[in-house]
């Protein structure tokens, strides 16, 4: 099935016509910063331009940030997109594009692309983990996205890994994200060195052998290992796909994560641990793939 | 479909002929303590006696403790059953009963019974949590048991909730089980009161208002809330079913767990939190139901 994938981000809108994970045509533009109506108009315009040349597309998938209301096809709010509050995305796109429209969480969309066509394409089940400014993810079993009862499955960065630990952006203490995301590493580095230190500089200092920088990196890798091991103990996935900026650091960080996962697994068989392969295309490929699978089969709300 | 369910425990073997969660006939006997061959013979004898009067049964399900080798249909080892090591349960039963035999983890079997016919029968997805001497569980989505890549899904009691916390029976530090299972509460009570204190006595003292006993109970409820909230953040199930001895304590404990789950969820929608309904029958009903669903459809290894 040929479908159209849209990826709505805080700064850009990406769109692509996709068949079985292969991009046939693509388009990209800046995200309007002037409210939901303009964002929706920009999405429609971008999609319509591609659909004109690819009328064979049978459905549209759209990956969005922020908590989504799947039942009503709305974006509850998207912290990084001005004016996106309770926005009726699905209704507006369905009406103006005259095609079925499927809404998906952006991390789920990118992860689903990796699950079906990227780093996890040979695995029955996988969990996508974005190690970035924050920590998010998605859970995939067979050809389905596991959304959960309230669309919250895969919010793995909010797992508590150290009750009483540092408070995160959501006011919650000791979450994986507050212990090991890029922004939390930068927080610790800035504290230790008494000036603003970026995650990139932290990793540079750690590579150069700075003991304090290395302690911060080791600590974050430790908690990421614990987080991954906890997921194993709940659903025992065939593998993990790591995406996001921190996963781009390479073996220096990933080897530490792998060792931490093994320590926290105390003898359990190890899942595959892979790095995302599809780069910037993951969002549109995943949104298009979700649209294909959801329009081909009845959605399973909980599965 | 009518199927036979077997529940192999450390002290007893239970068996039942079951149709859609309803027990049509049952049998029970002591588990031989004289090795795998005798255990298998006892299972065959118990099953055969029921099948003679119910030849309409189309398959056999068996719930077993201990790590299982699903691919080879074997019990790797069962700590509570003498001589059960690498026991070829499925091959032996299939040959002697001349019916398809499906092996399942005992917690998965009991949880599946609750999911399909008990406390969670109206929920699309549920997680069964045994709060007992230890903490175990099972994950159910739609009509399927989520087994995971290595049959380890639902080993939730081994999640790390407090790195550096007390060491558990598996040598692992800070697991949910080591922090909040019945045996860990008894450990803490025995330490606090400088003599052997059972979980039952601990709860009695806590109900009577003993501040130290109450602190132990509150601490365990806190970590159980954190454990449940962590599961929500991975798969967002429609509900939890609590089984095992500690769940039998009633509202005095469950209200504390519910409050702890809410605290640890920091504003997320709350899942249903229910107590198991099927009692001792859960094991046989679940084993029979797994046999029915697995022989009716091709099993999904990872799903």
Strands across the major sheet of chain A, in which order? 3-2-1-4-8
CATH architecture label of the largest domain in chain A: 2-Layer Sandwich
Query: Mean pLDDT across all residues of chain A, rounded?
Result: 93
- Tell me how many strands of chain A there are: 13
CATH fold node name of the largest domain in chain A: Nucleotidyltransferase, domain 5
Keywords:
Nucleotidyltransferase, domain 5; 5-stranded mixed sheet; disordered C terminus; 22% strand; globular; homodimer; alpha/beta
3D architecture notes:
The structure is a homodimer of 303-residue chains. The first copy, chain A, is of the alpha/beta class and 303 residues long. Chain A folds into two domains: 2-109 and 280-296, ATPase, nucleotide binding domain (Nucleotidyltransferase, domain 5); 123-276, Nucleotidyltransferase, domain 5 (2-Layer Sandwich). Chain A is built from nine helices and 13 strands. Chain A has helices at residues 36-53, 89-97, 106-117, 176-180, 182-193, 199-207, 211-235, 251-265, 282-296; strands at residues 2-8, 12-19, 22-30, 60-64, 68-69, 74-77, 85-87, 101-105, 125-131, 135-141, 144-145, 239-243, 272-275. In chain A, strands 3-2-1-4-8 form a five-stranded mixed β-sheet. Chain A has a five-stranded mixed β-sheet with strand order 11-10-9-12-13. The radius of gyration of chain A is 19 Å and the shape is globular. Chain A starts with a strand and ends in a 7-residue tail after the last helix. Mean pLDDT of chain A is 93; it is low at 299-303. At the A-B interface, helix 7 of A face helix 7 of B.
């Amino acid at each position: 099935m040929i479908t159209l994938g849209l990826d709505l981000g805080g700064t850009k809108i990406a769109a692509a016509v996709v068949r079985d994970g292969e991009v046939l045509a693509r388009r990209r533009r800046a995200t309007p910063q002037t409210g939901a109506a303009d964002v929706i108009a920009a999405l429609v315009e971008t999609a319509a331009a591609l659909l004109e040349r690819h009328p064979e597309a049978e459905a549209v998938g759209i990956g969005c940030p922020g908590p989504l209301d799947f039942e009503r096809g709305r974006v509850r709010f998207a912290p990084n997109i001005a004016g996106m509050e309770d926005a009726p995305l699905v209704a507006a796109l369905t009406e103006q594009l005259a095609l079925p429209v499927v809404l998906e969480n952006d991390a789920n969309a990118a992860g689903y692309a990796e699950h079906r066509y990227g780093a996890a394409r040979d695995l029955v089940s996988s969990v996508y983990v974005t190690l970035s400014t924050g920590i998010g993810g998605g859970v995939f079993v067979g050809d389905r996205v596991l959304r959960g009862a309230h669309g919250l499955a895969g919010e793995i960065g909010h797992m508590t890994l150290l009750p009483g630990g540092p408070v995160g952006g959501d006011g919650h203490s000791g979450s994986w994200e507050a212990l090991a995301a890029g922004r939390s590493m930068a927080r610790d580095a800035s504290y230790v060195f008494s000036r603003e230190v970026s995650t990139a500089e932290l990793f540079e200092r750690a590579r150069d052998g700075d003991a304090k920088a290395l302690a911060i990196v080791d600590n974050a890798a430790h908690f990421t290992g614990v987080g991954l091991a906890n997921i194993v103990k709940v659903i025992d996935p065939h593998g993990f796909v790591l995406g996001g900026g921190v996963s781009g650091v390479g073996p220096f960080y990933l080897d530490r994560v792998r060792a931490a996962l093994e320590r926290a697994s105390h003898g359990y068989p190890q899942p595959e641990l892979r790095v995302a392969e599809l780069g910037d295309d993951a969002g549109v490929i995943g949104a298009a793939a979700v649209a294909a699978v959801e329009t081909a089969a009845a959605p399973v709300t909980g599965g």
